[in-house]
Write a structure and sequence with these properties.
Blueprint lengths: L1 H44 L4 H19 L11 H39 L1 H18 L9 H32 L13 H8 L8 H13 L5 E5 L5 E7 L10 E7 L10 E4 L30 H13 L10 H4 L19
Antiparallel strand pairs: 1-2, 2-3, 3-4
Helix pairs in contact: 1-2, 1-3, 1-4, 3-4
Length: 349
Amino acid sequence: MLMKLLLVLCGFPLVLFAIPLRTALTKHKSFLSSLNNNNNNFHQKNNGNNNLDNKLTTITEASFLFTTRGGGFVEDSDDDDDDDDDDDMIASNDSTSLLILNKIRNLVRSLLDIGNKKSPTLTKAFTKLLKKIEKLTGVSLLPPKQEKKKKKKTKKKRSVSSSSSSKITSAKEDDEKYTPTPKKKKQQKTTTATKKHLSSTISSKNSNYRIQRELKDFITSPPPNLSVKVGSNIRIWIVSIVAADDSIYKGEVFKLRIQFPRDYPTVPPSVYFLEPTPQHEHVYTNGDICLSLLGKDWRPTMTAQSIAVSILSILSSAQHKQLPMDNARHAQNKPGQYQKDWVYHDDNC
């Protein structure tokens, strides 16, 4: 199918181009016969003039080449009527040849447009064939190339691409300016004693191994409004509680003393407030805290940090400042005892 299309594309313009060539050859034959008749008459009058014969032969040869390319030939004669007839014939030949050439060029342009859309490979072969025909005949058939318009288009494309790239870079710069920097978790400042406890190597069989691990977790990621300090004994912690801004204890700071017994974590730690103690319905003036997590609800999976967080939530949820009902009786006891047999006031303890 492609070979048939190639033959049609290549053969059809050649057939059209052969028509003006055939008409030019027929006209050339009639013109040559008239020249030969004139030449014979001229030889009868001037038998000895060989130079004129040579001129006439060169004129005939030139006329053949000129007429094959769609042109005409002007004959030098003495009669004005013969000159006028020859001029009219040349003008008519020129006009017809120009019309045919224009038709052929239009046809070639339309074939090239169709070929570029459907089969570019065939159009390339067809253009090569037309270039060879142009070299042989000297007649231009291909449409002129439009280079200036392409250059303008490329310039516009470049300008559009440069403007778009500049927009993208500006947008990226704006994003970089306004991207919020992620907040880093504030690590608690450690004392020399706590650094020693954290850097010391403790075996997993040692009872202090779990306490050291809990201390490391507390310092690396401390809960809000809570901080811890440790002295020479790793089993005694001092936890500072800063009251929340939306609580009735706003601006007040309290301190918890946490001591880990030998049986920890099977037994809960000893926890109580140091003076000054907060005025709360579940906090005694001696520092004890009415909290079931320090007694019957303690589990070995709990930590000292979770106890401190629950005490902070008790203070934050308080509606008014008041002491427990049995504060006068319990205030004389030693704080921080194991709350094994305690009777709690309510379910909030």
